[in-house]
Amino acid sequence: MRVAHIITRLIVGGAQENTIASVLGLRHKAGVEVRLVSGPSTGPEGSLEPQLSVVPGLLTTLPDLVRPVHPWKDWRALRHLTAWLRSWRADIVHTHSGKAGFLGRLAARRADVPVIVHTIHGPSFGAFQGFLANAAFTAAERFAGRFTTHFVSVADAMSRQYLAAGIGRPDQYSRIFSGFPLGPFLSAKPNARLRERLGLTSGDFVVGKIARLFKLKGHEDLVAVAPDLVQRCPRIRFLLVGEGAWRPRLENEIGRRGLTRHFVFAGLVPPTAVAEYVALMDVLVHLSLREGLARSLPQALAAGKPVITYDCDGAREVCRENETGFLLAPGDRRGLVGRILQLERDPGLRSQFGDRGRALVREGFPVERMVEDLHALYLRLLASISPAPAR
């Protein structure tokens, strides 16, 4: 079984971590050959490409596979992908992200690949974008869906959204949670040296957020409610893990409000070190307006931390109201203040939510389970097709 995964770029992010973990895990399955194709990974978000350097030949980089729409480069990327798939004689193509999801599936069809799988890590269309962009991306997903053998969703919410848009049939969808190594989070303990380096103290109440510093991630909402929270809870500190193009504007706004000492920018943190930062948090907030199911939510729960999240996409599939955390309507800043203060005043409730969250994550999010589920899906899909023509 030859499996080619295709993704637009390997920046530090949930979809990219999922893809790399899948590829590295599938390498150890008997009878499986796997390769990963990506565009260049550049920008302030960092790159995960070094994780693949230990396996020569595992990663192929296509310079023309870029995230923005670029007709000339897109056409060249499609040609190169098609030629590469034909030469490698892939049995399965598994695509990720918007641009690579479209071009990769189209190339797989042109190369007569028997099985084409696409993972929906997050919505490619929706109210978060303008009418014309939404119409264009919806049309592109419908077109690519016509020759997609199967869809993998990181949350049931993604399956429902795509089905409602007329993409595929219910039997073409499988939910496979985005697994990760649980051990570092289950055993995470506060590191005194890291706390000191970040300028935090053991008496601080730390509200954490893990996300790229970019639009739709909700950082502006956290900054907006910070003055009220600081006034009512002077010991509160905000720990922002992640990097991105919006950092200067966030720093300027925080400075304008006189809150610089209450915010800590941790910057770009390698995925292997995230657990150390989560261990310093008392609660994690997730305020994104566009996310399939953010890995930061189950990661925080695995570390025994309660979560507060906007009720977007798949968030409620791990943040269970009054069980593992609190769900808020998107943009509910007043509710955000109230829930943060409630958890600050009730350590027992924080511990209760954390314990329940750990039990939920232990069952659904081990990276080994994700790889097993993918492998089983591949075997089932290959067994269901007619004998493949000689290629």
State the secondary-structure class: alpha/beta
Weakly predicted, low-confidence segments: none
β content, as a range? 15-25%
Q: What percent of the residues sit in helical stretches (DSSP H or I)?
A: 40-55%
Using the alpha-carbon principal axes, give the shape: globular
The count of strands amounts to: 13
Output mean pLDDT.
Answer: 94
> Strand sequence of the main sheet, in spatial order?
3-2-1-4-5-6-7
- CATH architectural label of the largest domain: 3-Layer(aba) Sandwich
Gyration radius (Cα, Å) is 21 Å
Major sheet: size, sense and barrel closure? 7 strands, parallel
Q: What's the CATH class label of the largest domain?
A: Alpha Beta
Remind me, CATH topology of the largest domain? Answer: Rossmann fold
- Structurally, the number of domains stands at 2
Could you spell the SSE succession in H and E letters? Answer: EHEEHEHEHEHEHHEHEHEHEHEEHHH
CATH superfamily of the largest domain: Glycogen Phosphorylase B
Distance from N terminus to C terminus (CA atoms, Å) equals 14 Å
Output the number of helix runs.
14
